[in-house]
Design goal:
heterodimer, A: ten-stranded mixed beta sheet, 14 helices, 12 strands, 43% helix, TAT_signal (chain A), ABC transporter substrate-binding protein (chain A), signal (chain A)
């Protein structure tokens, strides 16, 4: 074969352009883009969900693009007509924002084989919830001898300078504040009692972490011994040998639906539907429930087992009894004002 | 003074000019336009985002503490970096490469890793606290992490190369004979330093200070990990408004105000430099 310099240059330029503007070259058939979360979520989805999807969709191409919910919304918002993402994953707060901004397609419930098997809380027509995240109390069993049983234990004078919380930027931080408000007579619409309570918590506070990830680091460093925490995040720490335990408080563990959505105007709606079906299927959920992922299943056909049955709930009925779901529609109405207030008031 | 008379065709600057126009000027213009929206839906245009920021003591406080943080870090870098740079210019070739290696080493590590290292150092069971405890100097661990002091120290370490490198270049250019001349004219070491070395090192001090300052106030990762969630600086404020709250117009206004404030501080640095040079020459 004989190489022409011009030809070579042209090919190189074309290849370069394809790299720089993938939209050009894949306008017709781009792979399905699934925006998952970073960290353990990405790992779990790569290992379990993607293979199940490929089996279902005849080896269709799929790309995982891990990022935060809020960043997914920003990205889709910036290119509504030709979104760079086909499937989004959202915590309850961002999910309502995405729906409010008309970024998601209603889920084709009638076509779905698994939708009706989901527990009622997970049946959301704008995008079903294939996963739950659970927030309870996390503590270091070497420093905290009697396991805590209630959110109120954080105020125990014994834990002076040993308690960690996060600010309200995260779903975890906001959900925690709402729960504290409820304990003191407030609600999703009235968070003032929580601010009053945090004022009293100040002597105990060792840190207000910038995000839930930073909270995990603080356990590793022995900077804090007790905090509100995410069940999955704690299992990851535990697996690394950090002395930390999770307990569902008697007021109920806060459960966040993690919903999955087909992006409006996606060129891959059919594949997006198949991916979501895979996520709702009992096979995938059963696998994701096992170690090391320990993701709480929402399909009632999945029998609870392992660590989840031990620490959280042995079946769906118990799960519903032990979990508290919050009204994020109400929360979102005031969330920005609360974040501002937290910025201003919480200085330790 | 020799002046170069070579002229270059202005068209040579076109590629870079075009690049800057597309990737720098245009986004900045879009950002500015966005900041003029009254609400996130863009229903009306006006300066309400700016008045909201500038009329709010809390927001101004965030801006103030951020600018102050930059000054503290810059001052610490200067105080610690100047002797290092001075030593570098006076050392032998072997020592020189060793100092350069030590100065450059942090640049070769990710800022995330360096910041986590500071969490380990400053933590309750960290190196500092456990040393002090074992020496019996303190009874309970000191709170170092999540304090302004801890943050300044961590940022100073992270940004130190940006100070030392320009300083070393500037001090290296000073003719050592000048110090001898100053001494032979009866100046002591201190007077020589203040009257000769310091003014001549000024370009390096200014360049280093500007780099350190700009890097310190925008260091999102270090600020949020060592400073924690209860200390709010401009980058986190910006992120919170843009990402968590999706309030892009206000976030855009914060960016523009931050940009203007930083440019103002840099201008002051420059003016101080020029002013003090004028004084020493007078």
């Amino acid at each position: 074969m004989d190489f022409d310099r011009r030809q070579l240059l042209k090919t190189a330029l074309a290849l370069g352009a394809m790299q720089a503007f993938p939209g050009l070259s894949f306008a017709q058939a781009r792979p399905l883009v699934f925006a998952t979360f970073t960290g353990s979520w990405e790992e779990a989805h790569k290992a379990v969900l993607v293979p199940a999807f490929k089996k279902m969709a005849g080896d269709a191409q799929i790309v995982l693009d891990p990022m935060l919910s809020v960043d997914q919304i920003a990205k889709v918002n910036a290119a509504k007509a030709n979104p760079p993402i086909d499937v989004m994953l959202h915590d309850p707060g961002p999910a309502l924002v995405a729906i409010g901004q008309d970024l998601v397609e209603p889920y084709p419930v009638d076509k779905s084989a698994y939708y009706k098997d989901l527990i009622s809380e997970a049946q959301v027509a704008t995008g079903p919830a294939p996963f739950f995240q659970v927030v309870g109390l996390t503590y270091n069993p070497e420093a905290v001898k009697t396991p805590p049983t209630s959110w109120a234990d954080l105020w125990n004078p014994e834990y002076k300078g040993r308690v960690g919380i996060t600010n309200m930027n995260s779903t975890l931080g906001t959900g925690f504040m709402v729960e504290i408000a409820k304990m003191h007579g407030g609600s999703e619409a009235n968070i003032d009692p929580a601010f009053a309570a945090i004022e009293k918590l100040k002597p105990n506070l060792a840190a207000v972490a910038a995000n839930p990830g930073a909270l995990a680091t603080l356990f590793q460093q022995g900077q804090i011994d007790i905090s509100p925490g995410n069940f999955n995040a704690i299992q990851i720490l535990k697996a690394k040998g950090v002395p930390v335990e999770f307990v569902a408080p008697k007021e109920g563990a806060i459960a966040f639906k993690t919903t999955i959505h087909i992006v409006k105007n996606s060129p891959n709606k059919e594949l997006a539907f198949k991916l979501i079906e895979a996520a709702l299927s009992p096979e995938v959920q059963a696998k994701l429930m096992d170690a090391p992922y320990l993701i709480v299943p929402t399909n009632t056909k999945v029998k609870m087992g392992g660590e989840i049955a031990k620490v959280l709930a042995k079946d769906t009925d118990e799960l519903k009894k032990k979990f508290v779901f919050q009204d994020w529609k109400k929360i979102n109405e005031n969330r920005s004002a609360w974040i501002e207030k937290f910025n201003r008031d919480i200085k330790i | 003074m020799a002046t170069s008379t070579t002229t270059y065709d202005w068209r040579l600057a076109l590629p870079l000019g075009g690049f800057l126009a597309v990737f720098f000027v245009a986004p900045l213009a879009v950002l500015f336009a966005l900041s003029l929206q009254v609400d996130p839906k863009g229903t009306a245009y006006g300066v309400s985002q700016y008045t909201a920021f500038l009329g709010d003591a809390f927001s101004l406080g965030v801006l103030g503490t951020t600018l102050l943080l930059g000054l503290e870090v810059t001052a610490l870098c200067l105080v610690l970096g100047f002797p290092v740079a001075h030593l570098y210019t006076r050392a032998g070739p072997r020592m020189r490469s060793l100092i350069m290696l030590i100065v450059l080493l942090p640049l070769l590590t990710s800022v995330v890793v360096r910041t986590f290292a500071w969490i380990v150092i400053l933590g309750r069971q960290g190196i500092v606290n456990s040393t002090l405890l074992s020496l019996g100097l303190i009874a309970t661990p000191l709170k170092l992490l999540y304090t302004q002091g801890g943050l300044v120290v961590a940022l100073a370490q992270v940004q130190m190369p940006l100070m030392v490198l320009p300083l070393a270049t500037a001090i290296g250019r000073i003719d050592p004979n000048l110090a001898d001349a100053s001494a032979s004219l009866g100046s002591g070491r201190w007077r020589t330093f203040v009257k000769v070395t310091l003014p001549l090192a000024l370009p390096g001090i200014i360049a280093g200070s500007m780099l350190t300052y700009a890097a310190a106030i925008t260091a999102f990762i270090t600020q949020s990990l060592v400073g924690g969630g209860q200390m709010l600086f401009m980058p986190m404020y910006l992120y919170q408004q843009a990402s968590t709250l999706q309030n892009w117009p206000f976030a855009a206004a914060i960016s523009i105000i931050f940009l203007v404030a930083v440019l103002a501080v840099v201008t002051v640095f420059n003016m101080l430099g020029r002013l003090s040079r004028g004084l020493t020459e007078a």
